[in-house]
Amino acid sequence: MISYPDIDPIAVSIGPISVHWYGIMYLVGFAGAYLCGMYRAKRSNGLWTPEMVSDAIFYGALGVILGGRVGYILFYQFPAFVDNPLILVRIWEGGMSFHGGLLGVIAAMYLFARRYNKHLVDVTDFLAPFVPIGLGAGRLGNFIGGELWGKPTDVSWAMIFPNDPLQLARHPSQLYQFALEGVVLFCILWFFSQRPKPRYCVSGMFLLCYGIFRILVEFVREPDIQIGYLAFGWLTQGQLLSLPMVIIGAGLIIAGFKLKIFPQASAAK
């Protein structure tokens, strides 16, 4: 067993104001996406400008935060929301959902695409390779905060998380997700998109790979206590929400290589 590192989840405190590492990880994700976007924009043959990248990151940030919060409440806290709708604005209590954030980003990118007269999927194809930076940073934030831990296990790298009321040795599933959703997914998408790919392919690869990685990690991740397992003693909400991503992602890749449509500077929205 490995000792859990004693890291204060609060990075900086100034009087009554505390800045948590989890919040800093959001900034790291947005900053990383911005820098990568600027790098790729210079090599886009005029399809993307620095102004477009800045606006896309701004739209995306709003989509992540608003969609992530609404998604968490609807997917994981819906009975509590019905009893008290005000929990939606209690952001200080925590709670964000990747799948809600994804829907929020798609909605935000739709608005962005309309503004710049771009095809929605051309936008998501461009931005998809940068998303794993934020995903990986967020999982590190979960690990530092000692939350969203894995199931009990006897593997040699198991850890006891200080916030765990049972104080059991568990899988550090946050690090598994950091490795798969962050590092591995970034490498796959970055190299896959290094050369122009037909429309739909990069977005499809993101959905396919993330969905597979999330489904796999859910087998060793402790399900949300208020939901538990949905069926068969192993099916989780995260797996149920990720399965459509795998199906849609595979479909987009097949459609992309079949249609072979490449983005144009004058693409219709």
From TrEMBL:
Location(s) in or outside the cell: Cell membrane
Regions annotated as coiled coil: none
A molecular function GO annotation: phosphatidylglycerol-prolipoprotein diacylglyceryl transferase activity
Residues binding a 1,2-diacyl-sn-glycero-3-phospho-(1'-sn-glycerol), per UniProt: 139
The protein's Enzyme Commission number: 2.5.1.145
Keyword Metal-binding listed: no
CC per GO annotation: plasma membrane
Keywords recorded for this protein, A-Z: Cell membrane, Lipoprotein, Membrane, Transferase, Transmembrane, Transmembrane helix
Transmembrane segments: 19-36, 56-76, 96-113, 125-144, 175-193, 200-220, 240-259
Pathway: Protein modification; lipoprotein biosynthesis (diacylglyceryl transfer)
HAMAP family: Lgt (MF_01147)
Similarity annotation: Belongs to the Lgt family.
Physiological role: Catalyzes the transfer of the diacylglyceryl group from phosphatidylglycerol to the sulfhydryl group of the N-terminal cysteine of a prolipoprotein, the first step in the formation of mature lipoproteins.
Name this protein carries in UniProt: Phosphatidylglycerol--prolipoprotein diacylglyceryl transferase
Organism from which the protein derives: Marinomonas alcarazii
Gene name linked to the record: lgt
